[in-house]
Amino acid sequence: MYMKKTAVIICVSAAMICGAIRLSMRLTEAKELEMEVSKPQQDIAAQEQTKIYNGGENMPLYYDEEDILLLPIRNVAQGLGGTVTWEKTTKSVAVTYKGKKLLFEAGNSSAQMCGYHITLHTPPQSINGCLYGEASILSDFFSTEVRWDSAKKQISLKSKEGVIPIIASDFLVGKSQGKEYSLEIPVIMGLNDGSYEKGLNKEIMQEIQGLVDEFMLGDGDGNFHLQLEKGLVNGDFLSLCWSGKKDEQTIYKTINIDLREQKTKLLTDMLTEKGIANVKAQVPFAENQLFYITEQKELALIDSGKQEQAVVLFPGNGDVLKGQWQTKYADFISASAM
């Protein structure tokens, strides 16, 4: 991902007023790492159009045009109980935490997490002698949720409850004979069954590779792009959705896996008969209906034949679906759906 070098120290109000900040951190009793910010009294130094607080502590950086938050890796890792070391053999920075390892280099989008190769959307950046990483990848690695409180001028990394699988990304990219493709591949880590985890990653990779092969064997020139969106991910269930374009055709792909049973699920496996009838009364419904569960615990139905309004959302505990999930899914979808 290309990122413009004009950056500002993290915004200090809901109105996105940009300015320099001082960072202090503390770990609360609830294992929540808090970063409090305030305007410094010293002057601000500029390097490569990046505003940096000169002589202060390492501070979060916010790239407003890309909507990307970067955090100081060493500060975050040590604050949450991890370690940061330099590995001479690979010439990379190693972050370790609870048996997991994250390896990366400044300026390189290729990284390694838990033994898997992944691709970072934003490469780590060395700024003013401090290495910064994208908040989203650090949040996944440390199983935390990043929150920004504009009223308190405070960033907090709050630990998530239970064991949450990590979903990172890699890409299949290529260009040949007038055709170009870029397909995002999920890299799934942290499942209870390591053997199943490896097999699942291999299976998904083969499916995506099959889509590429089919595209490359087709007639004519063209482009094929698929972007991954993470849906509901917890220790029991995994829901993912891809969307993109193959030439002018809109493409969707979904996968919904019961991690306890280690099986892919259809929507008819998850809803009661009345629930299915309620949904059918609202929208057309196919036997092998494309669907996924969003992070907000909404049911997203996809009609891949439509170019506009292809996705219809139903709140997981709304009028249509309330009380209509099978018991084992109601526990984590309907009971706390937003």
Automatic annotation (TrEMBL):
Residues 66-156 form the Copper amine oxidase-like N-terminal domain. InterPro entries: Cu_amine_oxidase-like_N, Mao_N_sf. Pfam families: Cu_amine_oxidN1. It comes from the Bacteria. This is Copper amine oxidase N-terminal domain-containing protein. It comes from Anaerotignum propionicum DSM 1682.
